[in-house]
Amino acid sequence: MSTSSRSKARRLLHAALVLAAFAASSHAVAATRAWCADRCDQIVIDWNLQTHQVIKTAEGYTNPMAASRVLAMVHLAMHDAVNAARPRYRAYAYSPAAGANTDADATVAAAVAAHDVLAALYPKQKDLVRAALDTTLLDAGVGSAVERGKQLGAAAAAAVLAKRADDGANADEAYRPGTRPGNYQFTPGFDFLAAPHWRAVTPFALRTPDQFRVAPPPALTSAEYAAAFNEVKAAGSNAADAKRSREQTQYAAYWYEFSDIGWNRIARVVARDKKQDLWQRARTFALLNAAMADGYIAGWDAKMHYDFWRPVTAIRQADQDGNPVTAADATWTPLLTTPPVQDHPSTHSVLGAAAAVVLAHAFGDRTTFTMASPTALPEAPVRSFASFSAAAKENADSRVRAGIHFRFATDAGLALGERIGEYAVKTLLAPLR
């Protein structure tokens, strides 16, 4: 056989192998669709809700930083498991040899990955988690595709758990409030600072927690500080004469829940009405929760670095700030309870902006949605939005109306969140082509 004939034969053989691999991949996808029909992409939403339920059952969902880490791990494991069956995007932690898993059931892989992460992190909830997995496996049946899907899911979960094993989430750090004007003081109702060690947790997408650290808050004697002080003092008060509209009071309550809970609900509400396949949906929720987890980490880095007091402390101790335009009110109370962590930046604003960027990347910013909130006032249980960015801005403004953040803290939070979201979208789980 001549050299040209051998070369032609090799090209034909390569083409045949590519076609065979494509056919095998298409057959696997068709087999998966046969049992889950149009519910394949629903598995991501199902396990998003299941993760929330497991966290709430285990500890009442009282630690949003830890919860955001769990949500990111679950969804990154699901992404890597689905992606391992037929790679479209870069993996986070698990990337087997290309073409080795074309017969795997990707939906089974996703469910097993989520199950294994949650079972490892919450062993006392293993029965609850196993019951959720059994629902998927019961419908999936048996066969080589199902078995291979189980293997991929287990491998992806193990890889994510191993990668996050020493990320600093289980560390501890002592904290003692400062004594100078501007230093954070424990807020009413609390005698501790929430998770000071979170500033050093390994990020999911960012290179370091301080990669995009925000600028410092304005000097106490500045006009900028006085303007922000007087705004929150008037608009965030719990007094009957607060300078706040009825709607502003309503959305202060509406957005008060933890950001990771609210923005995952937004994602579920929108995703149910949008066409995405399993791969796209797994990536969207993985990016969303990785970005929000990094929002907490980067936010805590800046909070601990600047250690700035909250409005409730600043207003009650304004006679110490050296600013002639601020006036102390020893009895001032915010509309809503101030969380036990520093003011600058507002991580509520960080997470909202980061989430809005990720969801806009997936669905387009001008996506309309209507959503309920468990912290909303009975008179206004739901709100509607014309875009994700508009929702993020209202979410940030709500913290000033609630009396728990200065305006400069929410502005800094929005800017930080946008940078985190944009960085995550560009660098994490990027398309292979």
How would you describe this structure to a colleague?
The chain is an all-alpha fold and 433 residues long. The protein has 2 domains: 35-163, Up-down Bundle (Vanadium-containing Chloroperoxidase, domain 1), CATH 1.20.144; 196-427, Vanadium-containing Chloroperoxidase, domain 2. The chain has 14 helices and 2 strands, in the order H-H-H-H-H-H-H-H-H-H-H-H-E-E-H-H. A two-stranded antiparallel sheet has the order 1-2. Helix 9 runs parallel beside helix 12 and helix 12 runs antiparallel to helix 13. The longest helix has 34 residues, at 3-36. The radius of gyration is 24 Å and the shape is elongated. The two termini are 37 Å apart.
Q: Strand order, main sheet: write it out.
A: 1-2
Question: What is the H/E string?
Answer: HHHHHHHHHHHHEEHH
Largest sheet: 2 strands, antiparallel
| Count of DSSP-assigned helices | 14
Unreliable residue runs: 12-31
Principal-axis shape equals elongated
Integer tally of domains? 2
Beta-strand share of residues? under 5%
Terminal-residue CA separation:
37 Å
Q: What's the helical proportion of residues?
A: 55-70%
- CATH C-level class of the largest domain is Mainly Alpha
Q: Which whole number gives the mean pLDDT? A: 92
Radius of gyration: 24 Å
CATH architecture of the largest domain: Orthogonal Bundle
Structural class: mainly alpha
CATH third-tier fold name of the largest domain: Vanadium-containing Chloroperoxidase, domain 2
